[in-house]
Write a structure and sequence with these properties.
The chain has 245 residues and is mainly alpha-helical. Helices cover 69% and strands 0% of the residues. The chain contains eight helices and no strands. The longest helix is centred in the middle third of the chain and has 30 residues, at 134-163. It is globular.
Length: 245
């Protein structure tokens, strides 16, 4: 079903990355792709960093999405770097579109890959190995189950509205916003409370150390990605202090 798009599927993964590597990539993409101007060496750093989540998406068999997102990013990046400087003030709307979607797209794809390929047990185990406080682990663990559950609830609400003729092109199109999103907001709050209670029931807030059976750890690919991301961060640091233009 479509609502299962965010559910983690370990058995179908072709590449196993440690959850800590995925979090490192999320932080690296946020620093290098989302922020900063597109000039000098950043013209090389940004595309090389943004390429990683698209390749990871390809590794889990989402080749159509990977090709579409990669093509869209290339177009937006090309517009931001080559076309917009020649348009002057008239290209403000295009600048907003390219800057917003072009910079957020790699991070969104990386976030999707992280949620899609990481189970809650793997995430908790990796956070505990990093000695992160349970006060941060519990809400993040709830977040990993929140989005799939919300997507499931959204499609259930959509099916109920279609049965009542509330859809785009139907007789009561104007009621779609009210009858879809208000129940969705109420369900989101309820889902968050239920997932939090379920996490505490399973012992996430217990004072004793938890055990788990999932296997996590760094492999050759993890080391390569960590070194690759670190190199991009170092190059960006050199650019910041003026060693590169």
């Amino acid at each position: 079903m479509n609502w299962q798009v965010l559910s983690s599927q370990v058995e179908n993964k072709r590449i196993r990355l440690d959850p800590r590597t995925k979090i490192f990539l999320l932080i690296t993409i946020s620093i290098l792709v989302v922020g900063g101007e597109v000039s000098g060496i950043m013209v090389v750093i940004k595309p090389l960093t943004a390429l990683v989540p698209f390749l990871l998406l390809l590794s889990i068999g989402k080749w159509k999405q990977s090709i579409c997102f990669t093509t869209l990013f290339i177009i937006l990046f090309f517009c931001e770097f080559w076309i917009l400087p020649t348009m002057g003030k008239s290209g403000f709307l295009l600048l907003f579109f390219c800057g917003l979607f072009g910079r957020l797209l790699p991070g969104v794809v990386m976030g999707y890959y992280t949620v899609r390929t990481t189970t809650v047990s793997e995430f908790i185990a990796s956070m505990e190995r990093m000695h992160i406080t349970p006060k941060l682990i519990i809400p993040l663990a709830v977040l990993f189950r929140f989005f799939p559950t919300v997507m499931e609830e959204y499609h259930h609400i959509g099916d109920a509205m279609k049965m009542r003729g509330i859809r785009i092109g139907g007789r009561r199109t104007s009621k779609m916003l009210e009858y879809r999103f208000i129940p969705m907001m109420i369900c989101s709050v309820k889902i968050g409370e239920e997932l939090s209670a379920a996490s505490l029931t399973r012992g996430l807030g217990a004072p004793i150390k938890r055990t788990n059976i999932c296997q996590i750890g760094f492999h050759k690919l993890d080391v390569f990605i960590l070194l690759y991301g670190s190199l991009m961060l170092v190059l960006n640091l050199f650019r910041t202090i003026g060693l590169f233009s």
